[in-house]
Design brief:
The protein is built from twelve helices and eight strands. It is an alpha/beta fold. Helix 8 packs parallel to helix 9. It binds 3-methyl-2-oxobutanoic acid. The site of 3-methyl-2-oxobutanoic acid has 11 residues, from loops. 3-methyl-2-oxobutanoic acid binds next to loops.
Amino acid sequence: MTEKAERPLDSTYGGASAAPPKKVTVPDVVAMKKDGRRITMMTAYDAAFARLVDRSGIDVLLVGDSAGMVVLGYTSTVPVTMDDMVRLAAAASRGASRPLLVGDMPFGSYQTGPQDALRNAARFLKEAGMDAVKIEGGRETVDTVRALVENGISVMAHVGLTPQRVSQLGGFKVQAKTARAARRLLDDAIALEDAGAFAIVLESIPAPVAREVTERLRIPTIGIGAGPDCDGQVLVLHDALGLYGEFKPKFAKRYADLGPVIVEALRRFDAEVREGTFPDAEHSFTMKESEQAILERGLRDRAAG
Ligand code: KIV
């Protein structure tokens, strides 16, 4: 966690002489708030991108159920299943060993009560190598959060815009815009902290509300569309890298626009194959001339009868 600045981007981990980078733990993340160090979190859903997130020095890798939209192509996160999430999270954990790994509990995997939540959350730890889980919701999830934490599963809470309730909320809208709603959100956050959550995502809420929540909680707040005063920030990888078409929420800063770069690369492949310039000698395998001669002679003899 502390060595991100020094590590060159092309270094490999775990070589004979290099000490492996220190794994980020739940207590590390909690301590960052106390120490006034900002927390970074990014989503990833497969081994290739998880490896890049690991190399970037980002503290927390979230296998978000946003995968439902950016990977699986649904229009919301609601259809995502526990099996989907376990498969994606297992792939991500094979790519990343240093960041804290958090698996997002999908819709229907915890709302039916603490027992179902425990069984499903345990799958994230046992089958997918996650370190913690994330659960959307306020006071209605407090018993579930407490049950998970009491049974050894660390929980990141998530309030504000909770995308699994998108139809109930009437769309992906900013939440807690009135004093009353903001007060309710703050009470939810305090209840989740009391239940044992180690951190809380604040999504799409006014910056002043996020600041109040951040000041009043001992656990770190991680914002997405919640202004600059949270203890950390998270973005969806596909938003940050320009991999999700033209759709761009106001809060989602695009750190790279890879979509057009990828399309251009694919167009070049398409053109080079059609015109016969790929593969060239550089990208082809050869064989010994003597072996080639024997092969050709043998084939000629076989054709002659
Ligand atoms: O699913 C997700 O990616 C999330 C983040 C937006 C916090 O919940």
